[in-house]
TrEMBL record:
<keyword id="KW-0055">Arginine biosynthesis</keyword>
<dbReference type="InterPro" id="IPR024083">
    <property type="entry name" value="Fumarase/histidase_N"/>
</dbReference>
<feature type="domain" description="Fumarate lyase N-terminal">
    <location>
        <begin position="54"/>
        <end position="304"/>
    </location>
</feature>
<comment type="pathway">
    <text>Amino-acid biosynthesis; L-arginine biosynthesis; L-arginine from L-ornithine and carbamoyl phosphate: step 3/3.</text>
</comment>
<dbReference type="InterPro" id="IPR009049">
    <property type="entry name" value="Argininosuccinate_lyase"/>
</dbReference>
<keyword id="KW-0028">Amino-acid biosynthesis</keyword>
<keyword id="KW-0963">Cytoplasm</keyword>
<dbReference type="InterPro" id="IPR008948">
    <property type="entry name" value="L-Aspartase-like"/>
</dbReference>
<dbReference type="InterPro" id="IPR029419">
    <property type="entry name" value="Arg_succ_lyase_C"/>
</dbReference>
<dbReference type="GO" id="GO:0042450">
    <property type="term" value="P:L-arginine biosynthetic process via ornithine"/>
</dbReference>
<dbReference type="GO" id="GO:0004056">
    <property type="term" value="F:argininosuccinate lyase activity"/>
</dbReference>
<protein>
    <recommendedName>
        <fullName>Argininosuccinate lyase</fullName>
        <ecNumber>4.3.2.1</ecNumber>
    </recommendedName>
</protein>
<comment type="similarity">
    <text>Belongs to the lyase 1 family. Argininosuccinate lyase subfamily.</text>
</comment>
<dbReference type="Pfam" id="PF14698">
    <property type="entry name" value="ASL_C2"/>
</dbReference>
<dbReference type="GO" id="GO:0005829">
    <property type="term" value="C:cytosol"/>
</dbReference>
<dbReference type="Pfam" id="PF00206">
    <property type="entry name" value="Lyase_1"/>
</dbReference>
<dbReference type="InterPro" id="IPR022761">
    <property type="entry name" value="Fumarate_lyase_N"/>
</dbReference>
Amino acid sequence: MESKVSRRLSEGTAPEVCEHVYAPRLARDFPAVFAHLCDVNQAHLLMLRRAGLLPAADGAVLAAALLRIEEEGFANVPLDPAIEDAYFNYEAHLMRVAGAHVGGCLHVARSRNDILSTMDRMRARLQVLDLLDAGREACAAALANAQRYADVVMPGYTHLQPAQPITYGYWLLGVAESLARDLERFQQAQAVLARCPLGAGALAGTSFGILPQESARLLGFESCVPNALDAVASRDYALALMSSFAIAAVGASRVAQDFYTWCTHEFGLVDFPDSVAGTSSIMPQKKNPIVLESLKGKAGQLTGLLAGALTTVKGVNFTHTGDGNRETMRGFFEAADETLRIFKLLALVLRTATPNEAAMLERARNDFCTATDLADALVRESGLSFREAHHVVGAVVRTAMDAKLAAHEITSAMVDEACVQQIGRAVGLGDETVRRSLDPALTTAERRQGGAPAPDLVRARVQELQQHLARVQDDVQTQRSGLAAARETLKSEVRALAAAAR
């Protein structure tokens, strides 16, 4: 049996190749790329007509056939793994609809390589827009509750030990800052995605007098890729985006880990509604944080997909290859889908988590996280070096712990006793100064430098980031409108060309 796609090949495709390479790829990819393949074919047709590379009559027949295939949908295209991939199966169907000669004319001045590269960018740019929307919603959820809970005092932790008092709103603002950087990384990739590879051919362009900028315009691209080899060889934008996906996933995992800790009975700082919890098949008292576990687990998936893509492409020649472009992009599209799920789940978590305000404040009052503020007071009012103050307060904390006293029960007499032990003299720090230094609500409000958690500073920064998110939203809407307008122009021009066939 001869090959169904090439007279160079004297044998048909082996059943194992059909079963394990082409059939799975067709089943996975054809529904996903069908609309893009229709658009690419229609844009190429219009370009060929404008360049004078296709007779008017043939162009009209092709336009009518392409519109018919698009209207009937991908389910009406017979798929044969022996014909290899999505493009060859589409072309075979086009040749049945338009006739073998006319249908075969559409492939002039192009290759599957630049077609695939173009479709990959078209799919990727839509997914980036979806991710910008989803990431913006997660960031907005963090900001809304940062505004709401800017005054809710809680302990801040380092090494999972009480460190300094902050507010829950301040913590959420930090999460929002991280999410805003995720969005910036996605936006950086859009400059590459705005360049169209169509016209690059297999790797060396073409001798036909094509109009690549016209194809780019019809497909909603801003410009063309300047080097044909690079156009088909490189998917580095996918690697950059997968890195951004993995970073975003790791960030979400760390947020989930904080919530995971705080919602335990032992911490009791945060609670979630039953709608985002699971239960046990045997233990009736259980309320399990399944969404948080899912967020943490997905970070492992995303880092694995990134590592797999980088490893796959590292030994690939700088040209078009199946492993470099198909297997890598398979991981990319899966990673994009998973990242979208991560943002959706993270928005849910950030929106529904409820802080236990009383427990947070009580923990901050009792767990010595105000010790640094007491040391700062000794520096400011008693002239101690910070290291001297650090030793004094460390001794005070040790004494209080031994006596089973909470932080807010420390007195000026205890401070003076520690001063005598550590520096050989009392300093007479007043009771009111000690009290204020150990009040987490007061010390949090007084910390105003270096991105500090004072509630008014938190709210001011929330407003700045909300304005930034509004600009991101406007930009996404502008891009969506531009792509929709370009596509409507494409369809209108193809319909006009097809009308000549009637």
